[in-house]
């Protein structure tokens, strides 16, 4: 059986940002379900862990292993488009960008997605990928039915009606329950998005947020915050009927703003900022004024199809950290972060008096987004129990070079943690089981479902073991501090400077 299915030996795998790398003893890309089942049986016979990897876009080590890795890029067919029930069923290796094109031709679309569409359907679901809308939940919420290949080789189909406990656990599974092989999802009639982007003063954004006039001001709302400019771009999008208005074409001006200033010039400035970090605030203000205009209230408008409108150019390699909070608490967190970063406020009210902001200069924007949430969500939904805001911090890696981020991310995590925040599963964080139990009321249920369907831990993976299973305090070995690789010998961070 070993020789029948091809695999790569000692396969070096790295995530999209190039921030984590591992060498998997075997790397498989099965072409059929039978092949996948054989690989699983073989892994069990060899007592190997099996990690499924999508397109490796998670900015943490969640998809990494030194044992066996399997990727479902060849199991990516559409199984059915059900026009009556507004549902599409696909094999789990389907990438979102391909799904959009297929659905578009049939007159359908996904109602909500994140900033990119490179992800595999199963990968996007597994880590609680979100977009930005208080009218919509996580992408996982679009799932109507899942079929999972369990560790014992059986296929199990679950939904809210059939085995709801497994379904709620598997809708955000972290890849640790089994191999998701088929997904049935809810779709909506294809639509376009009309967007208005406004240059807004930071304090005005906070006022709107606190008076409940920000996140409900359109169906999809995103905020990009530029702290040194004390300005935000507030992007509001509403649905319009597909092709009811001309879609916006790329103009010389938009190329200059987005491609020249937003990408190339910015990358050069980030490169220079590695040597002269205190110049970063001036660079931010300069690029902001060129890209968006400096005057408060300036607006720009555009119309796109739904997926181009929700996606954006995420530029180049980067370190990211993103946590979620209840929407009202998010405003307080944002103010505290501003006070710490810009005003160097280290009073106990910031929640991070032990973190010295002097000498810390950051990249922008800080991205702020929202998602609808309640107690019907998947057990590990980052929006479980309440409407949720996500605050994402970023340090780019110009030309794939390292930049300093440890002190910044560590302070940011301390602040959001002090307010009860939850880390995004796909992103690096330093939370252990004890802290996560406080943050996720259903973590115990998720762990017991996991134990039930995979008692030997074939799908456990080091990330899940480290953060969710072992009772150790992982703050001291935080991935954000770059120590997890040494501790667990699973991954080696690349490009760490500090
Ligand atoms: C540039 C960029 C932009 C992003 N934008 C957003 C955003 O807007 N919103 C957001 O929330 N996130 C965002 N992310 C994070 C991204 O959506 C998640 O990391 C997502 O999980 C990546 O999907 P993937 O296919 O690459 O999965 P991978 O990163 O390869 O794997 C992620 C997890 O999925 C599991 N998995 C994959 N396939 C299967 C399967 N068939 N069965 C079971 N488990 C499986 C893996 O084991 C792993 O645990 C972004 C990431 C990048 C790099």
Automatic annotation (TrEMBL):
A GO CC term?
Answer: mitochondrial membrane
Instruction: Kindly indicate where the leader peptide sits in this chain.
Output: none
User: Where found, per UniProt?
Assistant: Membrane; Mitochondrion membrane
Q: Does the keyword Metal-binding apply?
A: no
One Pfam family here = ALO
Q: What is its EC number?
A: 1.1.3.37
Q: Please give the chief subcellular localization of this protein.
A: membrane
Report the pathway entry: Cofactor biosynthesis; D-erythroascorbate biosynthesis; dehydro-D-arabinono-1,4-lactone from D-arabinose: step 2/2
What family is this?
Answer: Belongs to the oxygen-dependent FAD-linked oxidoreductase family.
Q: Which PANTHER family does its entry note?
A: D-ARABINONO-1,4-LACTONE OXIDASE, L-GULONOLACTONE OXIDASE
The name this protein carries in UniProt is: D-arabinono-1,4-lactone oxidase
Q: What species was this sequence derived from?
A: Saitoella complicata (strain BCRC 22490 / CBS 7301 / JCM 7358 / NBRC 10748 / NRRL Y-17804)
